[in-house]
Amino acid sequence: MAEATNAIAEQFDSSEQQHESAWLGLWAFLATEVLFFGGVFLGYIVYRHVYYESFVLASRTTNLVYGTVNTAVLLTSSLTMALAVHAAQVGKNKNLVRFLILTILLAITFMGVKGVEYYEHYKDHQIPGPSFVLKGAPEGELFYYFYFTMTGLHALHVVIGIGLLSVMALLAARRRFNPAYYTPVELSGLYWHFVDIVWIFLYPLIYLISRHS
Amino acid sequence: MNIIEETHPPPPAKLEPDYLEAGHTVRSWLLTTDHKRIGLLYLFSIIFFFFIAAVAAGIMRLELLTPKGDLVLSETYSKLFTLHGVIMVWFFLIPSIPTVLGNFLIPMMIGARDVAFPKLNLLSWYLFMAGGMFALYAIIAGGVDTGWTFYTPYSSRYSNSHVIEMATGIFLSGFGSILTGLNFIITVHKMRAPGMTWFRLPLFIWSHYATSLILVLATPVLAITLLLMALERIWGIGIFDPRIGGDPVLFQHLFWFYSHPAVYIMVLPSMAVISELIPCFSRKQIFGYKFIAFASLAIAFLGFLVWGHHMFVAGPSVYAGLVFSLLSFLVAIPSAIKVFNWTATLHRGSISFETPMLYALGFIGLFSLGGLTGLFLAALGADVHLTDTYFIIAHFHYIMVGGTVLGFMGGMHFWWPKITGRMYPEKMGQLAALVTFIGFNLTFFPQFILGYLGMPRRYHAYAPEYQVYNVLSTAGASILAVGYILPVIYFIWSLHKGKKAPANPWNATGLEWQTPSPPPVHNFYETPLVVKGPYDYSPEEEERKLEERHG
Fold first, then answer.
1. Is residue B198 part of a domain?
2. Is residue B256 scored above 80 in pLDDT?
3. DSSP summary character for residue B510
4. N or C: chain B end with fewer CB closer than 10 Å?
5. Do A13 and B244 lie within an 8 Å CB cutoff?
6. Range of the domain at B306
7. Mind listing the pLDDT tens digit for each residue in B412-463?
8. Beta bridge partners of B389
9. Is B172 within a domain?
10. Mean pLDDT value of segment B146-154
11. A20 to chain B: nearest residue by CA?
């Protein structure tokens, strides 16, 4: 029955052509994402260079514990995602559903930690605006502006990922994937790893590089 | 490549209706995934936006008839040029050739049944239209007065107009552009018919491929830039805000990092059309195929490295200025390669002057002039004198109108028989091409002089000594308007009264001509097998035939 969903769209000649097209398409999409994040990363790096001392001071006021926990959570979710794709590859549907749900739960954990972290910044008057206070760092507000913009954009991508993976979990629960057809799972995985990689850059940029200098 | 194996049996010959007959309901158009129908959806949409933006230009030209600001207020004038710029750039020029002719022709030229992702293709159009609706709303609600460049802090802090709505419109239509570019890239990579190797691709495809690369890599930078600008406007502070240490010039860097490549998004597809027209109406192999193909990629690449020349007066360091100036000169090389190769193709060809060829020849002249005046602006010293004057306006209109619009019109005439199955009236077409050419030059050539004499752009009043050139320009604009309206009239007329078009009215060589006009739903009754290069013309044979015919 599952084989019935392997239909090839009419513009393609073979399932291999269809698969390769989808794969290449997602890579091209990720290229646009790199350029999208690139703009704001570039801004951050330029200003960090210009206002080095302020940025160092301000970055020391970020919460290293939350940042590190979230890094671990997100890296683990990439592992469970890879395991989900593998499960789809070998046709273990139950495992596929399990790993997808696990990935979603980890993503929600990430968002939860991020929420607590944001709340503490709010309590500490670290949200840019009239109530912003950070002693000794004249451009600390700019640092926190970048902090919220970059992590906010990343969080938006996590939320989109949660939605995407939920759809995949639902489809998997309905036995829509099999070893001959699991392109959507694979592509969602690729997207999820990308979201992870963005964080891999954000974590050192925001929490680490200035802490010991 | 595994695409050669054929798992679908080819549809039975002649049983499939043509794509226009395949459905007549509104639903069959709005939910279509046929690349040809989506091309037509885009055609109607961009023509609509074109006329809105053209009317704004018309009002501006009327205002500029007299030195005093007597027709519209200064503020209204600012809104008019913003409207004209935003709508023309994002809702006409950027989508024009790729989404209409590219959509229609790319799958046909490579022998495919459709683009790689037909549903995504339809989504692109809906995103484009959603963006268009936001833009229209911004215009109707009172307009935007920042200029199409949205420079901060004006756009983020001081402007009282509908900046956010307009930016949302551009963001959405940009998303549509990204998806179109992505679709084309994958289509060219994965959907080519058996035997269609990279160097048998028509140059139309190469140029669109280069365009798509820019669409995919540059547009996201515009997205983040507009997002940061909008965020700054909503939040009250932002990274371009000097009060917290931000730098407005960073906005300009990010904006031009997109907007300079965007110029090539607009002109490369036009070059794509010209590369098809010139060999067909010279009956000759294109000269230097690989040079033209790689010149497209070189333009796409170099286009990413020259944005700084828009900012020579924004205080870059001397060295940055030098480097950007040098790199800007470099872009002239691949552009010149193309112009020389087209001209060399004409040499010893059997040339005829049908309407598409008139537009193509017009393109070569006007694009050359636009390109050469670009060198003035790439030169640091000259640029400081000419920046923000009418010289700039004239320069980029020679590229955008003389280049892109002429290419678009040439392409529309050339492929009209294929798209509609009807011929347009040839004499009328030639007349319109001529009127457009004359009107265009009369409109914009005086602006070079105006700019050189120092008339600044973006003002509704000016010193009286500039009046004579402005009157000439306005007169030209009214002639140009005739050149635009004529084709609309006879194209519509031809839908009912035009001669029925044969499959290949121009005796052209592309795959798109080897299937009926209008094409069947899946383009070809049988997947074509490609055995030779794209421009298999022979001028000698053509001349012999002509001699025989005339005795």
1. yes
2. yes
3. S
4. C
5. no
6. 30-549
7. 999 999 999 999 999 999 999 999 999 999 999 999 999 999 999 999 999 9
8. B456
9. yes
10. 94
11. B190
Closest by Cα among B331, B363, B371, B333 to B346: B363
- DSSP state letters, A158-203: HHHHHHHHHHHHHHHHTT--BTTB-HHHHHHHHHHHHHHHHHHHHH
Helices (H) and strands (E) in chain A, counts: 6, 0
Please give the tally of structural domains in chain B.
1
Instruction: Tell me: ipTM over 0.90.
Output: yes
- pLDDT greater than 80 at residue B233: yes
d(CA B105, CA B83): 31
Beta carbons of B156 and B241 less than 8 angstroms apart? yes
Residue B10 near chain A (CB below 8 Å)? no
Interface of A with B (CB under 8 A): 8-11, 13-14, 16-17, 20-21, 24-25, 28-29, 31-33, 35-40, 42-43, 46-47, 50-51, 54, 128-129, 138-139, 141-142, 145-146, 149
**CA-to-CA distance for B237 and A143, rounded, in angstroms?**
12
Q: How many cross-chain Cβ pairs, A to B, lie less than 8 Å apart?
A: 116
| Count of Cβ atoms closer than 10 Å to residue B420 Cβ | 18
pLDDT for B3 beyond 70: no
| Cα A22 from Cα A15, distance rounded (Å) | 11
Residue B2 lies in a domain: no
Interface check B529 vs A, CB under 8 A: no
Domain ranges (residues) in chain A: 15-208
Q: Residue range B240-253: average pLDDT? A: 94
A85-116 in b/e burial notation, b at 16+ Cβ within 10 A? bebbeeebbebbbbbbbbbbebbebbbebbee
Beta bridge partners of B456: B389
Non-local CB neighbours of B73 within 8 Å, separated by 6+ positions: B460
Q: What is the mean pLDDT of residues A30-48?
A: 96
Q: What is the CATH number of the domain that holds B70?
A: 1.20.210.10
Interface test with A, best of B3, B5, B251 (most A CBs within 10 A): B3
Q: Quote the percentage of chain B above a pLDDT of 70.
A: 97
Q: Which CATH architecture has domain A15-208?
A: Up-down Bundle (1.20)
Residue type, A176: R
**Cα dihedral value B91, B95, B101, B103, nearest 10:** -120
Strand partners, B422: B500
Sign of CA dihedral A191, A197, A199, A205: negative
pLDDT in tens, B463-481: 999 999 999 999 999 999 9
- Cβ–Cβ of B228/A142 closer than 8 Å? no
Query: In percent, how much of chain A has pLDDT > 90?
Result: 86
- Domain assignment present for residue B13? The answer is no
Residue-level pLDDT at B46:
97
Distances (CA, A) of B503 to B110, B273, B297, B418: 17, 19, 32, 7
User: Where does residue B504 fall: left (phi above 0), alpha (psi -120 to 50 degrees), or beta otherwise?
Assistant: beta
The rounded distance, in Å, linking the Cα atoms of B453 and B431 is 34
| pLDDT value for A136 | 85
